[in-house]
Amino acid sequence: MRVYLDNNATSIVDPHVFEAMEPFFVKKYGNPSSLHQFASDTHKPLKEAMQKIYAGINAKSEDSVVITSCATESNNWVLKSIYFEYILTGRKNHIIVSEVEHPSIIATAKFLESKGCKVTYLPINSEGIVEAHTVRDFITDKTALVSIMWVNNETGAIFPIEEIGEICAAKGVLFHTDAVQAIGKLPVNVQKANIDYLTMSAHKFHGPKGVGALYMKKGKELTPLLHGGSQMNGFRSGTLNVAGIVGMGKAMEQAIDALDFEMSEVKELRDRLEDALLEIPDTFVVTPRAKRAANTILISFRGIEGEAMLWDLNRANIAASTGSACASEDLESNPVMEAIGAEADLAHTAIRFSLSRYTTGEEIDYTIEVVKNAVDRLRAISSSYAYAPEGHESKL
Question: Which residues are designated catalytic?
Fold first, then answer.
């Protein structure tokens, strides 16, 4: 059996999405910007796909949703455009992010720091969540942007985006949210949450890789990151990825239709896995279930290096993760575990299991068996676990 439990890294393309995309590779392959029939064949499918994306986040027709190559591009676009428009001109000098944002936010923020921008990295609480009042406390009259993710990619923790959006609106500060892990896992409404900018990526909700989007509220449009053409109403240059856009639109439609299933049946499978793993002694989960996306578990097994556990899981054909896929080759301790103040021996033991609507009960039962056997084997050869004091209490 092969089991894929790394859906926060990427997800399988929904067969209906693949079917919708297929004609645009070898049949309807015209460049939408050209003036002949081959180009015209793409116009209606593109319009329909964009309508589905707008509807999926409740964007208004006068707002802008611009297709990008990925969420990393969208995140870079927001922060760097704010730098050019506000920081470099001297209008503002400060942005706020959380300390557990995706690397595409953290790395960009650090780059802007090197250019003279002041950056506040907000702490998370013991449950792995940025509290809304913390955002309020750090906003000043020099703050240009607050950027807080909607759902954490490691823990599945849901951040209080509506509260933060309300605070930013009241303070007159622009608000961006990286909603990559939220789309298809919980309701996303940019109007209700007072969002100025929102990032998404198709491959996280059963769409194709290599296509993402940036939502911009009317009147809050950003300076383009890429110049050299008139595509996307002049906001982003480059030939449109027709198949990708069509696939993203279909994936959004499918994700919204499956939302109730995700929040009930997928959650039930997640809880079955979590309950079984928590029966293992000295095992810890970050963030209460009620405050997490329905598909995610970040769990630590005392005395077992995360990479060692992944080795055993991989031998059993189970895919999981020790951290963000964009940084998985670094083999560093889990950043969320560090941020909540976990002990050093736990910060290196976190394993993330992330399910999807394609995960089955049979796969979960198999995973439970494999993990329990792996824990027994790895703890038997772990000197750190063997010498852990009895009754030792964790900071988790």
Answer: 326
